[in-house]
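Page header: ASSEMBLY MODEL / two components / 762 residues total.
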Amino acid sequence: MGRLTGGDPSLLRRINATVVLRALRSATDALTLTELVRGTGLSRPTVEGIMEGLQVAGLAAECADAPGELRRQGRPARRYRFCAEAGHLLGIEIGPHRVSAVLSDLAGARLDRAERPISEQAGAEERLELAAANALELVSSCAVARSTLRAVGVGTPGIVRADGSMRLSTALPGWTGLPLGERLRRTFRCPVLVENDANAAVVAERWQGVASGCTDVVMVLAGLSPGAGSLIGGRLHRGFGGAAGEIGALHLLGREAFPERLLSTTGEPLHPLDEAAVAEVFALARSGDERAEQAVERFIHRLVHDVAALVLALDPELVVVGGWAAGLDGLLDPLRTELERYCLRPPRVALSALGEDAVAVGALRLALDLVEEQLFVVEST
Amino acid sequence: MGRLTGGDPSLLRRINATVVLRALRSATDALTLTELVRGTGLSRPTVEGIMEGLQVAGLAAECADAPGELRRQGRPARRYRFCAEAGHLLGIEIGPHRVSAVLSDLAGARLDRAERPISEQAGAEERLELAAANALELVSSCAVARSTLRAVGVGTPGIVRADGSMRLSTALPGWTGLPLGERLRRTFRCPVLVENDANAAVVAERWQGVASGCTDVVMVLAGLSPGAGSLIGGRLHRGFGGAAGEIGALHLLGREAFPERLLSTTGEPLHPLDEAAVAEVFALARSGDERAEQAVERFIHRLVHDVAALVLALDPELVVVGGWAAGLDGLLDPLRTELERYCLRPPRVALSALGEDAVAVGALRLALDLVEEQLFVVEST
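Prediction written out in full:
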């Protein structure tokens, strides 16, 4: 009958349903029962039973005949497809200057994104409410029912506990101690995963960005709260206490100052410290402005220090530079030159392909991982 | 009959032999056939057959009756024990100032150690020959037959390729490119594993030192060629290109000088830069010598910089400080204080328990791992 004989019949049914669902999902087109039987090695009655169950669960649907398809003699072959629209996922970034969200279907295809600015000084409640409101408005504006949310991923600066609460966050006022996951679970009424922002960003770059196919990656997220996320052997390296890559203090070691001072061309700290302001300093430097040239040199010197320390410790295949440094293409050549000087085995260096979307997209990918584990779980026997 | 039914009969025999060997090895005392039958769940004829095979292979031996044991009626019960003396292992360190070796039996129990000094300027051939000669003399002096060597582990500074050749070593003249593993395999006529010295040292501290029971450890090996070895989730983290922890350049990032200058009390570089010389500077500082105090302060500042960079990148549970810094107990308190300042989640800090033996003992443990994999291999089914 099935792929397995004996054992727990409900487990067997679940494994068989998983096999069918995977086949449906990976197919580029709708499949007939005959194709499913052939592709899965299951019997026709088994596949028929599973397809009924998947249709009841809303995960598979029978297609109308493809347009122009000729009906042969007898009844036409029924065709089934995976219902990516049966569920939705949110990826949310909660940062120092803004909150943002991306919405996708069950296949991870993006429907839309939304963001709102927020003050660095805003309190935890205000920030949390704005993040939730921004995401819920995105869901409404896409005409998606809130009840179809299967999971929400959140990326935010700081050290996150396994239960989704914030162990420590120096970048956001009132954030330390916040039960962020629990609060958002109440809002969204589905599983909520909370991850450090740089960790989410490196996951995003591997999924849809410049780290595609790489297993050993360090991503440096420049910004008000500089941090790094690392993949080792394809898996997130969070560290023993979740603090891996919290390199905010590295510049103190190198006796350097904070980025808003490094990048200042006026003697006053650069404010606001965002991608546009930083890009302006870089443009000024390219046009020959001496103070801007010095500012860029100071900034690159610090970035090299941070990146080199990470590279020497971890020896990654690839370093991705993101945050508001992304898009600043004047950065890469000096960074490469300096890494060649300091590292016995210099890694490749690339700018983030996802730019300001990296954190939210990575949070979405982590939510999708959770849902896929649930949909496609096969217990090891 | 056996634990498995059907399948490859030679595989089945091997699995059963492994089960019996494990039982023998983990027992504190010799075991009777009846005890082995009870402990393994195998049949008596199966255990008898396996014991014959293990005796032929020299891995098990029948014991004489224990002294004072009374013979009951009938023939006495035969007792068997694991023959740890059936094979031997070497752990070798090849460093800038010395070569050393430790010898153990198949159970990892140490028989003896030996070391020889060598000049930092010695060429690769001279260093290799001295390392081999020192180890072979150790084997002879313990009255062990060279033919009983089952594996040799080697720890040495630099980046090691998977085939045991040196990809890069800046610390030892002529070392880069040397096919170290292959050369020593010809000498010892058994498998030779080559590992970075700091990686070997962290393995040693976990086996017999201060990192016992820890899974996330960074070990900093201070010395002429400072380096670090890391365990992540209990496994060595070698990095994408084998260069993880090659932090020799970190002090350049912090605009610091080399340790022989940092620790100088005369204006001239400290020479030789070994544990005794460094201990003398620390003792002078404790006695109130101002220049020595300044030297120690410079040295600690640099060590904190290196360690903090590693800790921020990796977030380990424990940092172990070894190399010639080991035993210098004045180091730990300032290191802890500084890490508390810089790290969001400061790790525990400890001095190496194995001191100058750490690299050779770690190399021995890696050789033992290899042999145990071979002796106790059970294929996953």
